[in-house]
Amino acid sequence: MKKHLFVFCILWIEVNNLQAQLPEIKTISFDSTAFLAKRNELNKIDVSSFAKLNYEVNSLKLPYRLLSPKKIKTGAKYPLVIALHNSTRLGNDNEKQLEPLTRTWLQDEFRTKFPSFVLAPQFEDRPTQYATNEAFGAVTATPQQNLKVLILLVETLMKNPQIDKERIYLIGYSMGGSTAQHLLSQKPDWFAATISVAGVPDVSNLPNIKNKPIWLIHGRKDDENPFNGSNKLFAQLKGNKKARFTIYENLDHNTINFPLLGTDELAKWLFKWRR
Which of 36, 203, 229, 234 is the most exposed place for a label (fewest CB within 10 A)? Predict the structure, then answer.
């Protein structure tokens, strides 16, 4: 009896490990009209609640926006969400980085349900560069020197007593997804969880992210930031029950955000993790 019980336990563990590593494969009915309507709705949201600020250190400058909780209670601590933009938002106007996925945090229901600080920095030059990695068998991303100024800004914000250092989250789309992975790789002890949407993977410090909560989201038809990169990265996270991979079979690089703009699933997933 004990032997049978032991075998059952081993099988149960193996099944659960396998389930933890299986990607979620989805095919959605893509309604471009509904997508455009939701995107337009988000683009019309008043962004004045996002304070317009600039960070300067050692002659380096980084424009950024910072959204605070609607109501801050005395002595309370709130999560910090770092929302990272795609390459079409490069610049120094301190406006363009507020892309639709970042603007979801401005919605009243989000600000009520997920009270938090939201940091949206803007890079003038790419904080990441892509190149074919023959050893890995995919295009991979390499962090650039200008990422250091963001690291210094985050370090400064972490000194704010109202920011909960146990709940700092990363989320980014495209170039922003790669940037999120760079930050996680370089400072794994800072971040509670990361979502990378259609990013090119950073595999330079795999041991640093091996056991971290990380959610990869990619469209199989993506030929701009190839799907293969996220697929291979997820395979490297074998055994990490905190890793998640969602594949949208019929979406590409430009449509991957469609199912993400009208849901709070991403915020729910992030907020369940603590460092």
Answer: 36
